[in-house]
Amino acid sequence: MTKFKPNGFVVFANEYKRTHNVQYYTFRELLDVISPFWNELPETDKERYKDKAKANAKRLEFKRTRETSNNEEVLEKRLKLVDVEADKKQRIEDLVYTASDLGELDDKIFYFVNISTFFEDLNDVYPAEFALAKYSLRKGLIDTLHIKINPGELPLGASYPALEKANKTHKYLLPNVKEGSNYDYGESSYLLILMSILDFIDPIEDAPIDDLPLFFTEGSSVNDYNKLISVQKAFVRIFEKAGEYDIASDLKLYSVVDLFYYLNEVSNTSVVYPEDKNEKFSSLTHADESFRRADRLFGYLAKGCDFHEENDVLRSCCLSRVRSYGYILSKYCVNSVKYPLIEGKHFPKDFHIEP
């Protein structure tokens, strides 16, 4: 048996195997066959194969280092995500229980947000529609804000995926498709959009804009977390496009499912008679399942904008979505014995929530 020769000889053996019909040889058999050929090679050719072997070794080491680095980066990102989500849950829990302890929870204002887009990639996002809702347990849906957005020309290559997305969801025409002077493409000034948002949050003139409330949207660590990330990305982009980079960097969205879970928990601790309690969730996963089940109902009953009402795509209407959040929270988190539920505020008009 010929002694195994490393480095250049191995490269030579692999090259020989590729160019000759020896695919059925074992590697050891191959070495015995080609050893005489290797021994007869001029030293210059042997050096060439040795250089190839060194280059291959460097590429392999680089690949291993990169894969290890990538794995560590992915793991680090996952751990950070777990920490961020844990912090968010803790903040929501503290918010709810502190307000409850102070007797302020019934009138505490919560803001729901939803945004649909034409197109988004790693560098930018092109929003299509925006909606905000102002909600409290006592009053239900207090007010809503709905804005159709014209993001301007889409980037090269974005029209086809944007058209596919529009056809499957919000049905708006792409901003670079000309339909005539009567078609409303939406508001194109991000500054005006931002001013509308800030005025909705705090209508007091000259109020500071650096003290934003918490915002809640769909998606959670349990289910469809990417939806939350997508809404946050679009929401932040609106602030950035309006030139408010400092505020945009601090803008955070929280899961309405997490809020749903803790509000439900608190609502059941303050009830005297068991028959007055709402369905209690054993875990966040249980709450998420109940939220999604209720959403299948209210997602079709919550009133949307005129365009989506006419085109029968309410589940893709941002205005309908934020109203749906309010109805779901009202069904499971409001004690109807403590104060009466209001039609159109706690539940859709012409609809009765069964106890």
Automatic annotation (TrEMBL):
Entry similarity comment: Belongs to the maelstrom family.
InterPro entries assigned: HMG_box_dom, HMG_box_dom_sf, Maelstrom, Protein_maelstrom
GO BP, sorted A to Z: cell differentiation; male meiotic nuclear division; negative regulation of DNA-templated transcription; piRNA processing; regulation of miRNA-mediated gene silencing; spermatogenesis
Organism: Chironomus riparius
A Pfam family reported for this protein in Swiss-Prot or TrEMBL: HMG_box_2
Keyword terms: Cytoplasm, Developmental protein, Differentiation, DNA-binding, Meiosis, Nucleus, RNA-mediated gene silencing
Alphabetical list of PROSITE patterns matching this protein: HMG_BOX_2
Compartments it resides in: Cytoplasm; Nucleus
Keyword match DNA damage: no
GO cellular component, one term: P granule
Superkingdom of this protein's organism: Eukaryota
MF annotations from Gene Ontology: sequence-specific DNA binding
Name of the molecule in the record: HMG box domain-containing protein
Domain HMG box: 2-68
Record feature DNA-binding region, as residue ranges: 2-68
